[in-house]
Amino acid sequence: MKNCPDLFLLSAIACQLSQTLSTSELEILAASLTALGDMLAVILSRQDKND
After folding, report:
1. Domain boundaries, given as residue ranges, for the chain
2. What is the pTM of this model?
């Protein structure tokens, strides 16, 4: 349950963005954030192997 405030905040941000940005802007943002998450996962996995 300790992650619930994070989920609430992310949900609020998503709702606000969906009301502010166009569909194409939202698609680009979503793809960019997914790519960022993937890159961070790769960096973390490489750091684990180097430790």
Report:
1. 22-51
2. 0.77
